[in-house]
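Hey Z.,

So I finally got round to the zinc ion thing we talked about over coffee. Here's the setup:
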Amino acid sequence: MASNPSAVLFKTDDLKVVDRPIPKPAPGQVQIAMHRVGICGSDVHYWTHGAIGDFIVRAPMVMGHESAGIVNEVGEGVTTLKIGDRVAIEPGVPCRRCDYCKTGNYNLCPDMKFCATPPVDGSLARYYVHEADFCFKLPDHVTLEEGALLEPLSVGVHACNRAGVRMGSKVLVCGAGPIGLVNLLTAKSYGASKVVITDLDSNRLQKAKEMGADCCIQVSRDMTAKDIAVKVKEYLGDLATQTIECTGAEPSICAGIYSTRSGGTLVLVGLGKPVVNIPIVDASVREVDIRGIFRYRNCYPTALEMVASGAVDVKPLVTHHYELEQTLDAFKTANNPTSGAIKVMIKCNVE
Ligand code: NAD
Ligand code: 572
Ligand code: ZN
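And the result:
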C-alpha cells in the first residue's frame, strides 16, 4: 500500500515526518511525486517560533515551498502536462479574480494560497497536488534540484527587476545568505559590470566570491553605515546604481541608503523589525528610490530560462542533502550557524 510521508509542523519545535493520505488531483491540478524540496529561512522560522508576524501556525502544517517533482497523475481538464513530466512548482496560487490578479500583480493578491504559509500546507512530502498552470515543465538538461532552486532564484529576479538592474549596473547586495546570493547571480546575468556584496560572516562571503561577486566587504558591528558606503565607493569607483538589501537588519538598510548613488534605487528584500530608524531625508533629497518586494510575480519563466541557458549556475547554493525521513536533522543543520549551510536540500524520491 503506497504511503505519503510528509514533514508536518505540529507546533513550535515539533516537526515530525508522518504518513498522510495521498492527495488526489482536483480538476486543473496535477499530483506530483516530489523529488527535491529546499529548506527556506521561513520554514526554519516557523519551526523555531511557530509564526512569522501575523501568520501563526494554529494547526498542523506541511512544510516546504521550494520544490520540484514528476507528474504522477493529471486531474480532469489538464492538457498542458502529462504523466512523467518533470516540473518546478511555483508555490503561491492566487485567486485569479481580484484586481491585483487581473492586472498581473498576482503576488499582491490578498487571497494568495502560498505553500507552507499558515494555514496552507506545503510540498515537503512524497506526493503533493498543485495547480497545473503553476507548474513549469523542465527541459531534460535541467535537474529537479535546479527546478526547486527556481523558487529562491525568482526572488532575485523580481528584486533585480524592481531595482532596474541592467547592463553596466554597479550593484551592491547586502547580505550573502541564499537570497543575497540569488540576487548576486541575477544581477551578474543581467549584465551588471560589478557586484559588491556585504556580510558579517566571512564564510558566506567566501561562497559569494566563488559564485561571482567582484568584491566582498566583511562588515562588523562597529562599522558605521557611512564607513560601509566609503568602502562601496572605493570598490565600485562610485556609489551603487542599485542596492539590493537582503538582511533586513536596520544598520544594513542605513548602509544601503548611504551606499546608493543619487537617483539610484534601493530594494528592500530583507524583512526584519517592522519599524526601523533610517536616514530617510538623505534618501529623499538625493532621490534614492526605496522599493519593497513581496516574493515575485511572473518570474518563474525568466528564472527557468536563466538556468536552462546556462546564464546562471544555482547548483553551488546547495551545501547539504538529506532524505525526507531525515527532515528534522535537515532543519537542525539549516538552523545551525556553524554548519556552513546555505541551502539544505531534501530528497523526497531518488531522481
Ligand atoms: P539569511 O539569514 O540566511 O541571510 C542573511 C545574511 O545577512 C546572513 O548571512 C547574515 O550574516 C547577514 N547579515 C546580517 N546582518 C548584517 C549586516 N548588518 N550587514 C551585512 N550582512 C548582515 O536569510 P536569507 O534566506 O538569505 O533571506 C534574507 C532575507 O530576505 C530575510 O529577511 C528573509 O525574510 C527575506 N526574504 C524576503 C522576501 C520578500 O518577499 N521580501 C522573500 C524571501 C526572503
Ligand atoms: O520564498 C518566499 C519567501 N518569502 C519570504 C521569506 C522566505 N521565503 N517572505 C518573508 C516573510 N513574508 S511575510 O509577509 N509572511 C510570512 C507572509 O512576513 C513573506 C515573504
Ligand atoms: Zn522562501
